[in-house]
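Re-run with default settings, no changes from the original entry. Doing this only to confirm the output is reproducible before filing.
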Amino acid sequence: MANALNGRRDTGKASSGVVAVAAVLLLLAGVLNLLRGVMSIAGDDVFVGVPHYTFRFTLTSWGWIDLVLGVLSIVTGVFLFRLALWARIVGVVVAALLILANFLSVPYYPVWSLVVIAACSVVIWGICTVPHHTGRASPGGA
């Protein structure tokens, strides 16, 4: 009631909902990268070949990069559901690395890369817009 009187409202539930959406999107991006990594390492024919690209890596190199980032994303996404502060920090870093890796791999798999870039942008927004005290008792004891 005191929070309502001074113009503030309790946003704990809404904040944890935003983090849950970010966690689901990070898990989704992680699974997509994990699958893309496995397909790249296996040498699947799904990927487009680009003859002259500045940031050219072999398909196997992209596979290992995607595999590692996918595993990191999945682990971080799971811990984001617990609202762990370290998971929020690592989540922003991993999402930024996913955006960078997918930006560099746009010529190889354009649609997939753009979808993951959009999802990771929402993840960063969702994690960064939630106040630090989410999931804990309010200082006023209300």
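The chain has five helices and no strands. Residues 12-42 form the longest helix (31 residues).
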